[in-house]
């Protein structure tokens, strides 16, 4: 998943676009444990990508989150 795809998903989930840049720290962008659980659910339902919320929470930046999702998506093919 590219960062732009992740950003679009996060905006669709109600996250403010001004907080979303690749270098933003996950916590500072508002991607807390509850939001990570919601993101994992949305990714599974809408994109068919299974990623544990713990993996999302272990990412430091939003770019790292996108990379983790991209890696999971590639592993499922």
UniProtKB/TrEMBL annotation:
It comes from the Bacteria. Residues 1-73 form the Carrier domain. It holds the Pfam family PP-binding. This is Phosphopantetheine-binding protein. It comes from Streptomyces showdoensis.
């Amino acid at each position: 998943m590219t960062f732009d795809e992740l950003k679009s998903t996060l905006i669709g989930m109600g996250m403010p676009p001004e907080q979303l840049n690749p270098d933003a720290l996950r916590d500072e962008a508002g991607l807390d444990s509850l939001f990570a659980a919601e993101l994992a659910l949305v990714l599974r339902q809408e994109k068919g990508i299974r990623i544990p919320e713990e993996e999302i929470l272990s990412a430091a930046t939003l770019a790292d989150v996108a990379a983790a999702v991209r890696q999971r998506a590639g592993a499922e093919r």
